[in-house]
Amino acid sequence: MDFALSEEQTAIFDMAHAFGQDRIAPHARVWEREGTIPKELWPEIAALGFGGLYVSEEAGGSGLTRLDATLVFEALSMACPSVAAFLSIHNMCAKMIDKFGSDEIKARVLPKAMTMETVLSYCLTEPGSGSDAAALKTRAERTNEGYTLNGTKAFISGGGYSDAYVVMVRTGDDGPKGISTVYVENGTTGLSYGGLEDKMGWRSQPTRQVQFDNCNISAADLVGEEGKGFTYAMNGLDGGRLNIAACSLGAAQQALNMTLHYMSERKAFGKPIDQFQGLQFRLADMEIELQAARTFLRQAAWKLDHDAPDAPKFCAMAKTFVTEAGSRIVNQCLQLHGGYGYLADYGIEKLVRDLRVHEILEGTNEIMRLIVARQMLADK
């Protein structure tokens, strides 16, 4: 087993990290206060090949592995997990279109998605269906031209901000086999948005309900086949879970780096606080947990890249372990900063707020445990 990153992978991480520290980190708090990410940022990110990280090269993407992509999200989240996570959503949508869409929709959508002239959002969750995603009610009725959509999606990152939406809708009976995936452009008649959500974290990402009221789309806007949408959505989420775990990992690493620096300068009882053995134990525990999380994440990414039968189980386990470890670490880093950790100027409290939602989205960690347990019982 080789745990070392290749020279190319190290270069990918370094490039993403340098960009994040130069173009994102200095502005992260301002963007959080303003509640938006400047759209001019996305073409800069796309110029690095990050607009279609694992979209095939034939479709204009970078064709990277899932492991490669986790390195990008880990590095960018060291600057701002909210910005990095939003990029993950765009990439998840782009990959779904690349993998399941017709040649026509790929040719129409992906070129501008790769340059991020078109920013994509993912619409699965509804006010009445979160963890029970297969119970979604948003309906797409067939018409002579295509479909008429009616319903509401909730907690949509990029709602009212993104240029297009990959939407899971009901075209058939109740249950997962009645769900399809469609593509809806911003500005489509009948598409509207709720008010801006006031969130604990991820505040730079505009989040709104996305509403469909007799919203008409063409038959060409169907992604893949009718009745396969739930499968497409879950397939996208395996990779999304790795990405969000990587965002927790990078933010936790950044918090630990900041804490090591702070503790070397902060003095108490006549010496730097990093010289107290009790606090050194806390640092060691965080480093142990962080390295375990990084190894687990990369193993899960390797399994997904190699289509291992147990890849979904490992993606669920890694998402659970890494996001919970990340939250514990950033919270401990805040504690080691004392009162200063509670102040916005030091940057730690933002990481605590941003990472908390990682245990909820892309499937709650309770659902992740259910996935793992069901697979265990099936394999016994």
TrEMBL record:
Gene Ontology biological-process entries: branched-chain amino acid catabolic process
Chain ranges of the Acyl-CoA oxidase/dehydrogenase middle domain: 122-215
Name of the protein: Acyl-CoA dehydrogenase
Pathway: Amino-acid degradation; L-valine degradation
Species this chain originates from: Roseovarius tolerans
Family of this protein: Belongs to the acyl-CoA dehydrogenase family.
Cofactor (UniProt): FAD
Database matches in PANTHER family: ISOBUTYRYL-COA DEHYDROGENASE, ISOBUTYRYL-COA DEHYDROGENASE, MITOCHONDRIAL
Any Pfam family: Acyl-CoA_dh_M
Domain Acyl-CoA dehydrogenase/oxidase N-terminal: 6-117
UniProt keyword Flavoprotein present: yes
Stretches assigned to the Acyl-CoA dehydrogenase/oxidase C-terminal domain: 227-377
Annotated InterPro entries: Acyl-CoA_DH_CS, Acyl-CoA_Oxase/DH_mid-dom, Acyl-CoA_Oxase/DH_mid-dom_sf, AcylCo_DH-like_C, AcylCo_DH/oxidase_C, AcylCoA_DH/ox_N, AcylCoA_DH/ox_N_sf, AcylCoA_DH/oxidase_NM_dom_sf
PROSITE patterns membership: ACYL_COA_DH_1, ACYL_COA_DH_2
